[in-house]
UniProtKB/TrEMBL annotation:
Alphabetical list of InterPro entries matching this protein: Aminotrans_3 (IPR005814), Aminotrans_3_PPA_site (IPR049704), PyrdxlP-dep_Trfase (IPR015424), PyrdxlP-dep_Trfase_major (IPR015421), PyrdxlP-dep_Trfase_small (IPR015422)
Protein name stated in the entry: Aspartate aminotransferase family protein
GO molecular function term, any single one: pyridoxal phosphate binding
Assigned protein family: Belongs to the class-III pyridoxal-phosphate-dependent aminotransferase family.
Key word Oxidoreductase present: no
Keyword terms of this UniProt record: Pyridoxal phosphate
Transmembrane feature ranges: none
Phylogenetic classification of the source organism: Bacteria, Candidatus Desantisiibacteriota
Keyword check for Transport: no
Length: 353
């Protein structure tokens, strides 16, 4: 048996084989998957999201987080009549168009993501650092009238900086008439149902959700101000599978599950419990590593890449699947945490032989 703290890179927030979600998918399968016109489920799920996500006035659906962010960028350019975009963090392969100012996922970082991107397009996109307000102010002072939008994914390791940084960026964008787009693909349905903007109490113009939205079924949502979302059909943001109903049925069941079972609180408490114990194991066996950030989506920080890789591989060999950003899910109960920690300790002992 494999204990996963990788959870398919984040989408599995509730666990595998959740009866309520399985049943919702099976029942919808009997009635069809995709249709020529919008299915009522689109409206039902959109209504639920408007109720639980602070910045949501209107909602539209696509399949992946990257294309949903691309949709928001297109809307921002249309509304502002500007072209430049500032990025913070990883906003999906589709939007990796400029040299990063922070860490990328390992698979992306080891590739050449800017090959195939024309210089003229790269020139319209710039990546800035998380938490460095002075850097952002400097860029805005020079180029503010040309910037259509900022797209921000919160930094896992230094998430706490969002308390001051994100509201400050919100003020900065409003000063220059720039739109703020929050990438809540990881933070949504983990940090809070509404992600970082709910947790840190500010409102972006638009936000994007995916991963935990439907507990592993492929659907993303871009949402925000009604006047912005209403422009999507006018500028041809469309997708054959955006309204696919099995994923929407899963999303509807997932949102209801979150509300009924106080999932967010459970993820915080369980995450704190397991990662504190992992920190203790690192200290006990003199592993030069740390878990930084919030317990719902912390970041493994190792002094040595070789030791990091050995740790991940040895844990996997002992039945624990990890990722550089590990996650707990709602199905991780006390006995699972206990067994996982025992296996991780065995792995560390094996490393030290």
């Amino acid at each position: 048996m494999l204990y996963t703290l990788c959870n398919s890179l984040g989408p599995i927030t509730l666990g595998y084989n959740i009866p309520e979600i399985n049943q919702a998918i099976v029942e919808q399968l009997k009635n069809g998957i995709v249709f020529s016109y919008p299915h009522p489920l689109e409206g039902e799920v959109a209504k639920l999201l408007v109720e639980v996500i602070p910045c949501a006035e209107k909602v539209r659906f696509l399949k992946t987080g990257g294309e949903a962010i691309a949709a928001c960028i297109k809307i921002a350019r249309y509304h502002t009549r500007r072209n430049k975009i500032l990025h913070c963090g990883y906003n999906g392969w589709l939007n990796t168009l400029s040299a990063p100012a922070g860490p990328l996922p390992p698979g992306i970082a080891s590739s050449s993501p800017y090959n195939g991107v024309p210089p003229v397009l790269q020139a319209l996109h710039k990546s800035l650092s998380w938490g460095n307000l002075e850097e952002w102010e400097k860029v805005f002072s020079k180029e503010g009238e040309e910037i259509a939008a900022v797209v921000i994914a919160s930094d896992y390791a230094e998430m706490e900086k969002g308390k001051e940084f994100l509201p400050a960026i919100r003020n900065l964008t409003q000063k220059y008439g720039t739109l703020m787009i929050m990438d809540e693909i990881v933070t949504g349905f983990r940090l809070a149902i509404g992600g970082a903007h709910q947790y840190f109490d500010f409102k972006p113009d638009m936000a994007v959700f995916g991963k935990g939205l439907a507990n592993g079924m492929p659907v993303s949502a871009y949402l925000g101000r009604k006047d912005l979302l209403d422009s999507a059909p006018k500028i041809t943001i469309s997708s054959t599978f955006g309204g696919e109903t099995l994923s929407l049925a899963a999303a509807k069941a997932s949102i209801k599950f979150y509300k009924k079972n106080n999932v967010i609180d459970y993820l915080w408490k369980t995450g704190e419990k397991i990662w504190n114990e992992v920190q203790n194991l690192f200290k006990k066996y003199n592993i030069e590593a740390d878990l930084k950030g919030f317990p719902v989506c912390p970041y493994f920080s190792f002094n040595s890449a070789e030791e990091r890789d050995l740790f991940f591989k040895t844990c996997y060999k002992n039945g624990v699947s990890l990722y550089h950003v590990p996650y707990v899910n709602y199905s991780h109960k006390e006995k699972d945490i206990k067994e996982t920690l025992e296996r991780m300790e065995r792995a560390i002992k094996e490393m030290k032989k």
